[in-house]
Amino acid sequence: MSVRMQPAVLDAEPAWEIAKIFPAQGTWAEEEYLLLPGNRLVEFSYGIVEVLSMPSYAHQLVTAWLFEALKAFVRGGGLGTVVFAPMRLRLWAGKYREPDLLFMFKHHRHRIHAQYWDGADLVMEVVSPDDPTRDLETKRREYAQAGIPEYWLVNPLDETITVFRLPEDALVYAIHGVYDRSSVAESALLPGFTVDVDACFAEGEQE
């Protein structure tokens, strides 16, 4: 039984007409961004949509491990809500990000909306090798400016977890601790919440 193969299409043109349905870069409104369908990671910055690369298998394993650890702690204390990407986080008017993990205290649940969270109490990012500066510098600065009290930077590139805390009335994070694989990372915001750094990164080494 023969199988009919589709002929190769050389120099095919992109579907420009479909692209024209959407606003031009720099002219997107927040309402238009929030109506985007699908579950791809898409961030929004002052009228520009930024499509993020798909995370690797190792990235997802580490993120899932952290989610389970944080969710178990939060649920045990009845503290609030933990979710993972894709979930839009509104930092301020015109700026949305999609952290790998987000936590909100239950007394702030009025800031949780169907399409996005209006800020968060703690966010975690697992650094992507294709653009580490985005998590190491850009998002660190933006999350602090948005007043997010704690930021965990989980970096498989140097196998460290850095926990940042936001001092009162500050717009720049202070380092609460830098933890390597021989250490246990601990939260400043959630007393008693700790992460075995070696176990966390070992999760991403599964084949």
Furnish the topology, listing elements before pairings.
Blueprint: H1 16-19, H2 30-34, E1 42-45, E2 48-51, H3 57-77, E3 80-84, E4 88-92, E5 95-97, E6 101-105, E7 116-118, E8 122-126, H4 132-145, E9 150-155, E10 160-165, E11 174-179, E12 184-186, E13 194-196, H5 197-203
Parallel strand pairs: 4-7, 8-9
Antiparallel strand pairs: 1-2, 1-5, 3-6, 4-5, 6-8, 9-10, 10-11, 12-13
Helix pairs in contact: 3-5
Describe this structure in words.
With 207 residues, this protein is an alpha+beta fold. It has a single domain, classed as tt1808, chain A (Alpha-Beta Complex). Helix content is 25%, strand content 28%. The chain has helices at residues 16-19, 30-34, 57-77, 132-145, 197-203; strands spanning 42-45, 48-51, 80-84, 88-92, 95-97, 101-105, 116-118, 122-126, 150-155, 160-165, 174-179, 184-186, 194-196. The strands form 3 sheets. A 6-stranded mixed beta sheet has the order 3-6-8-9-10-11, with helices on both faces. Strands 2-1-5-4-7 form a 5-stranded mixed beta sheet. β12 and β13 form a beta hairpin. The radius of gyration is 19 Å and the shape is globular.
